[in-house]
Amino acid sequence: MTEDRIAELLADYPVQIEIPVAWGDMDAMGHVNNTVYFRYFETARIRCFEELAEGAGDSEGVGPIVHSASCRFRIPLTYPDTVTVGARIGDIQADRYVMQHRAVSHRHGAVAAEGETLVVAFDYAAGAKALIPSGLRDRLAQFRGQPD
Questions:
Q1: Other CB atoms within 10 Å distance of the CB of residue 131
Q2: pTM over 0.90
Q3: 10 Å Cβ neighbour count for 61?
């Protein structure tokens, strides 16, 4: 039943990755430290970047840079557990997009945390933000989720 529940909670997240909760992820309060959730989101974000790059064509020297990130903690995680973290694309603008994340606890069959990362297109050679290349924009649209 838990697998069905996890699939249901992440049905609208095209990119998903399972991450085991490590003993060292916990803090003195006996639950996973707040900062670790951002690492979970980062892992899903990198997987999403890898999948977005497939078929996106030439990036024209433009890559992603994180502008800001947020997290809403729903339930505490503890060892042992596994989380499946989903990523999807939200709002897309000319030079930036929102990546949405959801971390689901296998032990609890519930959402442990949700967050967003604002990603800006950045021309690393010029050291300035740039427009999202058209090939990437097309790929981003394929990874869009539906608002909850």
A1: 15
A2: yes
A3: 12
